[in-house]
Backbone:
């Protein structure tokens, strides 16, 4: 396949098959190969469905996003924060759940920590507190097991059950409701329920106008906190992870 196709020149340009240069069409071998290339490129680049050429090939939006989520996990990619509105609100997957799944897979398959790409490793550390040393400790712990036959422990038994809460929340960050289970609503305190109802009624709300302890400390609500167009999310039921911009700034400063 032509390098210009592989680097996404025509895919990002949303060029349909019939408008491709003749030599590109001939090199592809047919429309099906082009469509396959579009889907694969879109998944690998974590492109948004509605803004990409892939929407003319994959008709079901959720089918595409579920495939994107699986592709990202399988390739140990960094969580798609730029798609967090879809990942959390529609797919029901927070960064914590995403990295929990990745680390579970790695532990179950005896994968080395070094198989994690740098950005994924950095974000996994910020989200779950698992770096190289912690991962090695978890691997040893999962293999140790208990009892006479020392049956290997499942990853869920050794992995953290909630993400690391952020140290700071800026007052100008915007909080919106992410994904809430009915079972979670029954566990809310009156103050938490009032906060949730307020955000549902008002829509995106300034973090500075809300009770900080509820926004940070609650594990029974899913909030999204929007910062510089990047979603920063609260745990299981409320996740707060560091934004990708922080990872980039750390990388550039090293």
Residues:
């Amino acid at each position: 396949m032509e390098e210009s196709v592989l680097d996404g020149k025509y895919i990002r340009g949303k060029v349909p098959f019939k408008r491709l240069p003749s030599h590109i069409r001939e090199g592809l071998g047919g429309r099906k190969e082009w469509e396959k290339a579009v889907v694969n490129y879109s998944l690998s680049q974590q492109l948004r469905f509605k803004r990409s050429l892939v929407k003319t090939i994959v008709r079901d939006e959720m089918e595409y996003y579920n495939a994107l989520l699986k592709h990202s996990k399988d390739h140990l990619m960094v969580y798609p924060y730029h798609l967090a509105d879809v990942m959390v609100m529609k797919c029901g997957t927070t960064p914590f759940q995403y990295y929990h799944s990745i680390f579970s897979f790695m532990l179950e398959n005896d994968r080395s920590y070094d198989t994690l790409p740098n950005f994924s490793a950095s974000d996994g550390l910020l989200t779950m507190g698992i770096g190289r040393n912690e991962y090695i400790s978890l691997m040893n712990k999962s293999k140790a097991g208990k009892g006479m036959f020392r049956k290997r422990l499942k990853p869920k038994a050794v992995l953290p059950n909630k993400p690391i809460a952020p140290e700071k929340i800026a007052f100008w960050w915007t909080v919106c409701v992410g994904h809430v289970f009915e079972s979670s609503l029954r566990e809310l305190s009156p103050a938490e329920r009032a906060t949730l109802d307020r955000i549902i009624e008002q829509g995106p709300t300034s973090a500075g106008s809300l009770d900080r302890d509820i926004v940070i400390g609650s594990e029974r609500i899913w909030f999204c906190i929007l910062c510089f167009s990047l979603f920063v999310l609260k745990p299981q039921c409320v996740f707060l992870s560091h934004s990708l911009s922080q990872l980039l700034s750390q990388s550039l400063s090293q």
User: Anything to note?
Assistant: The CA atoms of residues 138 and 158 lie 6 Å apart. Confidence is low (pLDDT under 50) at residues 226-254. The longest strand covers residues 223-227.
